[in-house]
């Protein structure tokens, strides 16, 4: 077993603190990664606090992992010691269902294994995530990371990046489409960057007027403060696509009515309580669509990382030591994230 140190939540109400545990020994197809940086996703906070009511404690969060390969199993083909690598939200799935075979492992019909808070196939124990010194993962669920980009700022691409890239691609957002991004947090700021890179006319909806300047810098053509009804009404019936990243329940009708005929609003935010029921009339008249999307498959995640390397796209990050993680969660709840916290794992050394 491989001795590992991480940060864990012991219950829904206790702050995260240092935690010693063991990773499994390397199997033939496993790689061992020394974790250099891990992004902080709002899902970490939802799960730490058991807001989705499925948390097993102790819980080591973190699914925006980048690091360096320090050992490989006998039959590993795609990686060698010294390579940079990434791990996102999944570390395994059944590999045999039609979704897995078609590269949509995130929609596996049988047994998707998330990077944390899932039963590990090899040991049956709870998986522990990236707020830790190292991780052992099957090479088929590990991503190649370009040496061209700032590796700390690449970490958030593994969840915030793919979660916004995938729906924009799936619903074929293209040049000159009018695209809305709701919420300027970790996901929202990546959504802005991708929509802009795909050539869309991009409008950012925010509850935080002080984020306007940043939104314009990040790729928005227009910024709308969503609490201002008059400003919202100027955009009625005009959007091809809206990507809603908000992590709290809110009135969806305010956005569906902005879609043009056959327009689509995709929800990726997953609040702990339901949204007020949306107006069906808003959908029926103009054949609008309300849809959802979950991260992206391994193949598409690699495609997204390669796209980012080619177009020089990374997250805007604030690096923190692991000891500041509880404070970072409080700031996240105040919408005070600019625009993704990334933990520098070197700070874990103080704990050992
Ligand atoms: P985040 O960094 O906290 O950003 C969320 C943003 O939503 C905030 O910055 C804020 O932006 C806006 N917001 C927050 N509360 C709001 C409210 N009451 N009304 C309106 N807007 C509000 O969170 P994140 O990491 O981007 O994650 C967002 C959500 O996506 C979470 O629920 C997370 O669990 C989920 N998620 C889903 C997937 C998936 O695969 N579907 C993947 C990752 C994360 P403004 O200040 O601009 O208003
Ligand atoms: Zn995430
Ligand atoms: Zn499957």
Tell me what the structure shows.
By secondary structure, this protein is of the alpha/beta class. The protein folds into two domains: 2-159 and 296-301 and 316-351, Quinone Oxidoreductase, Chain A, domain 1 (Alpha-Beta Complex), CATH 3.90.180; 160-292, Rossmann fold (3-Layer(aba) Sandwich). 23% of the residues lie in helices and 26% in strands. It has eleven helices and 17 strands. It has helices at residues 42-48, 98-101, 151-154, 160-170, 186-197, 212-218, 229-233, 253-256, 280-284, 298-311, 325-333; strands at residues 2-8, 17-23, 30-39, 65-72, 84-87, 90-92, 113-114, 134-138, 143-144, 178-182, 201-206, 222-225, 239-244, 259-267, 289-292, 317-321, 340-344. Strands 3, 4, 5, 8, 9, 16 and 17 form a seven-stranded mixed beta sheet that branches. A six-stranded parallel beta sheet has the order 12-11-10-13-14-15, with helices on one face. Strand 16 (317-321), helix 11 (325-333) and strand 17 form a beta-alpha-beta unit. The longest helix is centred in the last third of the chain and has 14 residues, at 298-311. The two termini are 17 Å apart. The model has no long low-confidence stretch (mean pLDDT 97). One zinc ion binds at residues 93-94, 97, 99-100, 108-110. Residues 41-43, 46, 159-160, 163, 183-188, 206-208, 211, 245-248, 250, 268-271, 293-295, 332, 335, 337 line the site of NADP nicotinamide-adenine-dinucleotide phosphate (NAP).
